[in-house]
Amino acid sequence: MALPDVTTYPLRLASPLAVFFTAFFAAPLVALLGLSLRGADGGYGLSQYAAFLGDGFSLGVLLGTLWLGLKVTAACLVLGLPLALVATRAGGWVRGVIILAVLTPLLTSVVIRTFAWIVILGRQGVINSLLSSLGLIETPLRMLYAEGGLVAALAQVQMPLMVLPLMTALARIDPSLWDASEALGAGRWRTFLRVTLPLCLPGLIAGSVLTFAAAISGFITQSLIGGGQMLFMPGYIYQQAIALQNWPFAAAMSVIFLVAVLAVVLAFNALGRLARGYAQT
Amino acid sequence: MLDRRTLLTTALSLGAMELFPGLSFAQARPLVFATFTGSWEEAHKAVLVPAFRKETNNAPIVLDPMLSVDQIAKVSAAKANPPIDVMLHDPGPALTALAQDLVEPFPVERSAAFKELIPDAQDPHGPAAFFQVVGLTYNPDTVKTPPTSWADLWRPEYKGRVGITNMNSTLGTGFMVEIAKMHGGSESNIDPAFKAMEKLKPNLSAVAANPGALATLFQQGQVDISPGNFNAIQILKAKGVPVEFVAPKEGAIAFKTLIQIVKNSPNRELAFKLIEAAISEPVQTRLMQAPYLVVPTNTKVKMTGEIARVLAKDTDDLKKKFVFQDWKTINAQRPAWIERFNREIKL
């Protein structure tokens, strides 16, 4: 009798989770797909998809949402990578403080963090009062209910999703590699570009995908900071499904949004593979 | 014999019953009343529920507060065995519920309180339990002369200080209809309102996603004047936020909040009793008083306090000062309007 291979586990162990996912994720998704095929006249077809894809305004909302996600991801990357680098390289309490600072927001609800941004960005908020007391502006700047404010708020709210994977990836790099690179005559920038960046790519990609996904679906922050006239996909779907009870169209929008997001995530991954290939040559 | 297997089966089925109590007690569930969240729930818990219990010898009742649209979604997803017995709706969703055949007619002939209601509130598909009133809200610290008309929102001194909501909400839609009427339009001609919005843009500081978000903007000083719901403003006021409510001279917009029995409800008799209590004079009198300030629909209620001061002294005054809108016409076009608002109102 052949002994079971100790390095593999029977697939059965995954079955509880598989059942759970089938019942509460796959089945609803199939139902959603079915619903999206219902036409306005009650028949079945692709009319809801045609209505969305043939409409410049709706496509604009979709692209605007993806673009918002890219901007937030870029902001998180630019602000989060140095932080993660400092945290990994610093020892002792500095590292502890940074990790605590990154983790604390995760313990607060998104709603509360978003409300803090209303206080910061408002007409009589922290920034406007500061600028006007310094005499830099006469009338308050409109930052709340504007895209700049929204990107800043989303970037702060989603920052831990970027920093934590980056820190994990950076911590795995053998510090002697940095010493070796410098001993061989590479400057700091070259070391960063040729050693650090390629080695932390997996964390960077993971962080970017997480931040991107969270930013484009961040319904609460989008509606509280972006307001009622800046329309993004989550708010648009909510409007169609809840305010207008137009479930088939909302279902079609959800499916299109899902596909678009998957495409962007695949693009991130492809980019990662490409960059890795480049780094290894 | 009690072996491991039977023990496990018993434990599992007990667990399942605990997880899904509906499995075994589908028939004998308590009356479920889907009220609105926030202050409405508090008011109904404090006044309506005790009155209902007294009438029904302590019949079990559960308040399950949720938005109108969620009520419709839940009931239409399980038409044969609805999880809700009594729905509470703004006029738009009430018509939607009716159109989707989710409403049991109200047994008017058995009701004593129905005849006492203001004619506008006597809807045989479910009477109006109270009115929601929309007027102008302003911050008395920064707006020194109280506004008197919707047209005041367009005054140049409010540049960058006006807030509105989008048309997803009853408030936002009702406001647009009123603005259309002011400029020669009507429920079937919204064009003038969109033209007027174009001119309002320099004044707009915020287009909030919902009335709740709009109200918080007063707290932050983001807006100083906006259309607002009478009851929402009272809550802010009670919290010390500097806000005042005035009924504009064109008349305050009044929405009937309809209370309906759900079709196929297993608790129809109790549902009738709850609605009967909700439209009765004693309950509405108590709800009209502070801190609830719910605008009554029963003509026998004597208006006092803040409602008498700001809205109407009695039923006749109320009929004169309130503007009712034709939601049947509005509902038919609302999707197109919301779509148009999406496209045209960009700051």
UniProtKB/TrEMBL annotation, chain A:
The chain crosses the membrane at residues 17-37, 57-85, 97-120, 150-171, 192-220, 249-271. PROSITE patterns: ABC_TM1 (PS50928). One of its GO terms (biological process) is transmembrane transport. InterPro entries: MetI-like (IPR000515), MetI-like_sf (IPR035906). Its main location: membrane. Keywords: Cell membrane, Membrane, Transmembrane, Transmembrane helix, Transport. It is found in: Cell membrane. It holds the Pfam family BPD_transp_1. GO terms for cellular component: plasma membrane. It is a multi-pass membrane protein. Residues 62-268 form the ABC transmembrane type-1 domain. Belongs to the binding-protein-dependent transport system permease family. CysTW subfamily. This is ABC transporter permease.
TrEMBL record, chain B:
The keyword Kinase does not apply. InterPro entries: SBP (IPR006059), Sperm_putr-bd (IPR001188), TAT_signal (IPR006311). GO terms for cellular component: outer membrane-bounded periplasmic space. PROSITE patterns: TAT. One of its GO terms (biological process) is polyamine transport. GO terms for molecular function: polyamine binding; thiamine binding; thiamine pyrophosphate binding. Keywords: Periplasm, Signal. It comes from the Bacteria. This is ABC transporter substrate-binding protein. Coiled coil: none annotated.
